[in-house]
Write a structure and sequence with these properties.
The complex is a heterodimer of chains A (127) and B (167). Chain A is α/β, with parallel strands linked by helices and 127 residues long. The longest helix of chain A is centred in the middle third of the chain and has 18 residues. Chain A has a 6-stranded mixed β-sheet, covered by helices on one side. In chain B, strands 1-2-3-4-6-5 form a 6-stranded antiparallel β-sheet. Chain B contains 5 helices and 6 strands, in the order E-E-H-H-E-E-H-H-H-E-E. Chain B has 167 residues and is an alpha+beta fold. The mean pLDDT of chain B is 88. Chain B starts with a strand and ends with a strand. The chains are: A alpha/beta (127), B alpha+beta (167). Chains A and B meet through helix 2 and helix 3 of A and helix 1, helix 2, helix 4 and helix 5 of B.
């Protein structure tokens, strides 16, 4: 199994860890993705895309279960990333794990799923 | 500089919270959490509280980004509406004229389309093609927080108002 080489983000209020699980890339986001997280997140997601393409990944799972909030600039990073996937020759699916207790996630992820309905799916788990 | 003035009406037909401060990104998140708790306690509607907290965060981050002197005033009110409670969030700050002109134009464009979610999707398509951060905040307030946005410009002072009414 190929190793992945994506350094984690570990700030005071926000973290992002990437792992490879079978043939799925997983990103776990924790904390509050506010303006301080914009630059590291916008640097991370293209690396995720490049790694997914290199590995021939069929699905990337984005874990929002412990993500308290995400601002619109961080949300835009996900929009940009999903657009990159749309334009790739070998596409993979993106699944968001949503926490029903974080009410903003339902609305934001719904918007993202409408943006790229063929690629994006959402799975909710009990909080 | 931080000042806080908070008052709740005697018979709960009016509640407001007003703050003058120099918001940092960290303070914006703290205010969002407070606002979410404040509205949850006042209205007992978790969805509405979440929407208002989101709108507050986005408005304050815009103020941090565009304020010319670093100071922002934010005022949130709950008052009786025709169907239920009318919730209003106002931010006021100084900003260069170019910024307020662009802001007013973007708000006019959004309100002219009349379908906040459709406009939000258009913004997302547009923003995906640019390498510039931001550009979705106001659309997010309208589409996700379901609040109508207007702005008032008076010289170099701009006031952005987001309103919604719970049924």
């Amino acid at each position: 199994m190929s190793a992945i080489n994506i350094p984690p983000i570990r700030d005071l209020d926000f973290s992002a860890e990437t792992s490879l699980n079978s043939d799925e890339l997983r990103i776990k986001l924790t904390g509050s993705a506010d303006a301080r997280a914009v630059e590291p997140l916008s640097n991370l997601l293209p690396k995720i895309h490049a790694e997914a393409m290199r590995l021939g990944t069929k699905r990337v799972v984005v874990d929002f279960l412990e993500l308290e909030f995400m601002n619109s600039s961080c949300f835009k990073s996900f929009v940009t990333w999903i657009s990159m996937v749309e334009e790739a020759t070998e596409k993979y699916r993106v699944t968001f794990l949503s926490n029903p207790g974080m009410l903003w996630q339902r609305r934001s992820l719904h918007a993202l799923s409408c943006f790229a309905a063929d690629l994006v799916s959402i799975e909710g788990t009990p909080s | 500089m931080i000042g806080i003035d908070a008052k709740i009406g005697n018979n709960h037909d009016l509640a407001f919270f007003e703050m003058n401060f120099c918001p940092s990104h960290e303070l914006v998140s703290l205010v969002r959490r407070f606002v979410g708790t404040f509205y949850l306690r006042m209205l007992s509607d978790p969805d509405l509280a979440s929407r208002v907290a989101l709108a507050t965060h986005e408005l304050l981050e815009n103020a941090v980004k565009y304020s010319s002197d670093g100071e922002t005033n934010i005022r949130m009110e709950i008052k009786p509406g025709s169907k239920g409670h009318l919730i209003e969030i106002r931010t006021r700050n100084r900003t260069p004229t170019d910024n307020s002109t662009i802001l007013a134009r973007n708000i006019d464009e959004m309100n002219a389309i009349g379908d906040p979610f459709k406009f939000y999707q258009t913004l997302m398509r547009r923003s995906a093609k640019t390498g510039v951060a931001g550009g979705l905040g106001l659309g997010r307030i309208a589409a996700e927080a379901e609040m109508r946005i207007t702005c008032e410009v008076n010289g170099d002072v701009v006031e952005v108002i987001a309103r919604t009414e719970d049924a």
